[in-house]
Amino acid sequence: MNFTVKTDNLEKALDMANIIVPRKSPLLALEGIKIEAQSSKVIISTTDLESEYICSIDCEVFQEGETVVPLKPLQQLISKIDYPELSFQLKDSRLTINSLGFSAELATIDISEYPELTLSSTKLQKIMEIDSETLDEAIDSVIYSSSYPDESNPIFAGVLFEITKKDMKLVATDGSQLALRKINQPSNNESKLILPVKSLKTIQKNIKGLIEILLDNPENPKIACFKSQTDFGQVKVSSKLIDGNFPEYKEVIPTNFEIDILLSRKVLLDAIKRILVLSKSKELSGIVIFEITKNKMIVKSIESELGKAKEEIPLKKKTGKDLIIHFNGKFIETMLTNISEQEIQISFIDDSSPMKVTFPETDDFLYLLMPVRIAATV
User: Fold this and answer.
1) Is-above-0.90 flag for pTM?
2) N or C: which terminus of the chain has fewer CB atoms within 10 Å of its end residue's CB?
């Protein structure tokens, strides 16, 4: 095997592969990537047996061939090379890398130990196309509500894609919070699938442009694939779907909200960030108190060894009764950081029911968070 490839393209391909490659695996081959030189392309592929990544990069091939090398040392090496092109040559189970006076040799892994990429070879059907920016924003809007990286309950470590002929909804929950984002993107098929967060993180922000979403069987999918032509090569990320039933999220969304407030997202986010600095109580760390009155909301911390803090936030609109309620402020901070709407509407029922966050004048986003019950009045 002998080929020359642009350094920048290879580095981007390896960065994506790094998300999938297991950090530690009983199978050494899984800590590596497969490199294939074919015709005028080099194909980088990897798998963790649950998901697969393939990137096809244009290059100059002098001799076709294939090998498997450990990803970590190769990625670290490439990231420290600023020469525009790299030459690779396989000889006697060693992969030689050359560029403008620099030379290195990497030990290879027995290619017979590398698993077959069965997901990527499955026949798939395209169900929709979506712009990467739209998909990235939708994933950002919900992914923090999953339990990932805690995968003890796989369903909670995934994101539900609910695809209909008129739109697509992404939903994530860990049992205490739930986030939903609707994309007005039609499809020729209707389908429900739960994608692992790890697979979504592989495509998120790494793929630019138009993304094709493909399924093996839209009516009962087991495999999903995201395919795109990027600036560094054609990318395919295939994933096994999480098997199981996602919670009936529509049934847990209350309809009898009695209090509504309208306020600036950024003003609330900045206030919570400041309050959390002193919300360090040993048993109630990160708890914030919302004290809602006629035309303002006071955000307070629980007094700790460090002290206490509060901030008054003006409300642009308020209907309903006054209320004092406690929440995990870190959850709210993360949610507000991952949405971009300037104004948000927050709805309440009482101090023991979930808070609902939506965007004014649209149903494109919904967030639910259960309050925290504490024994003492602060």
Assistant:
1) no
2) C
